[in-house]
Design goal:
alpha+beta; Phosphorylase Kinase, domain 1; Aminoglycoside 3'-phosphotransferase, Chain: A, domain 2; 2 domains; five-stranded antiparallel β-sheet; three-stranded antiparallel β-sheet
């Protein structure tokens, strides 16, 4: 999630929002409730689009705290231009992921309370449970990160077998050969200057990236979050185990689960910490019986997925850069991974 500038607010009128939300809540709760009070506030945190926090009072005495996400509203797109390549964008994707996939699989993700989809009017509204917690990057306790890695393996297991049947009709991204090959081409076009590092990466990708894609295409396919970094993972502390709640499913996809793991371990970790996170994921994955390869093969596959991730961020946009707390030297990381993978 990206911290939003609150100097602008949504252009949606209260009456229009109230009418749509009331219909959604009536359908969700299967009761003839009416909204008697509605307070709105632009959230401190947002993805590529406007997110509002709603405080809703109902005539049955209940009160709902929820999030209203509006990917059809261009306000934040003006404030954060070029945050996503056009071919990655589909305002229906996240709505359908919540409506048809996450809600029915009980993984602790935010409950979907309703949506409005009007393609002609470019109206794509999503109402979600507001989960009270902290973003993962705010946790210094490494054990929490290990629990997130294990959660991720369970999630991938849930959608691993028959994922194409489970996700049929949902407008997911597909990690196919064309998708993989797009990123080094974009990266080589966007990287500034002609430093030795840039030239080295450009030469390597032209000669060897086809072999990287061959390896990636052999990996098992599952449902991906697609942007499983620490700022997109809410952790809610409970009296039992913490609730792991990934948010911002705008880049949900079908592809190798290790892509999500690569994103999780992409922070400023030591090599041992990265390996421990990977082993936590692998151990949980092996419990399902869906993964039978050894640890060495698993870690090699992960290196290939980390290289893809580095190339993706290098090729993300000519004008975009992440918030300062999430910046990495992706060029140096890509060089390190090409040397680690070899193929030369």
């Amino acid at each position: 999630m990206t911290k939003a500038n609150q100097t602008k607010t949504s252009t949606i009128q209260n009456d229009d929002l109230k009418q749509a939300l009331q219909a959604c809540l009536r359908e969700h709760f299967k009761t003839d409730c009416s909204i008697i009070g509605l307070k709105r506030e632009v959230s401190n945190y947002s993805s590529s689009f406007v997110i509002e926090e709603l405080d809703v009072a109902l005539d049955n005495g209940n009160r709902q705290m929820l999030l209203f996400k509006n990917p059809g509203n261009p306000v934040l797109q003006e404030q954060f231009p070029m945050t996503k390549p056009e071919f990655m964008s589909n305002p229906l994707r996240e709505i359908e992921v919540y409506r048809r996939l996450l809600t029915t699989h009980g993984m602790g993700t935010a409950e979907c309370l309703g949506s409005v989809c009007n393609i002609k009017e470019k109206q794509f509204w999503l109402f979600l449970e507001k989960v009270n917690g902290l973003e993962l990057y705010q946790f210094g306790d490494f054990e929490i990160w290990l629990k997130v890695a294990r959660w991720l393996a369970r999630f991938h297991t849930r959608f691993g077998v028959g994922s194409r049947e489970l996700t049929s009709g949902v407008p997911l991204l597909h990690y196919d050969r064309e998708f993989y090959l797009a990123w080094p081409e974009r990266a080589n076009a966007f990287l500034p200057g002609r430093s030795k590092s840039v030239q080295k990466l450009e030469s390597w990708t032209k000669d060897y990236y086809g072999s990287v894609v061959d390896r990636l295409m052999e990996l098992p396919v599952t449902l991906l979050h697609g942007d499983f970094n620490a700022s997109n993972i809410i952790v809610q502390q409970t009296t039992q185990s913490p609730r792991i709640c990934p948010v911002d499913w705008e880049m949900a996809a079908l592809g190798p689960g290790l892509i999500d793991l690569a994103a999780l371990i992409s922070g400023n970790w030591s090599a041992d910490q990265r390996t421990n996170l990977a082993r936590a994921y692998l151990g949980e994955l092996q419990k399902s019986g869906q993964y039978r390869a050894g640890e060495q093969m698993f870690l090699e596959d992960l290196n290939y997925c980390q290289l893809h991730l580095a190339m993706q961020w290098l090729g993300w946009s000519r004008n975009w850069s992440p918030p300062s707390e999430h910046k990495q030297d992706w060029l140096q990381r890509a060089i390190e991974l090409t040397e680690k993978i070899g193929l030369c």
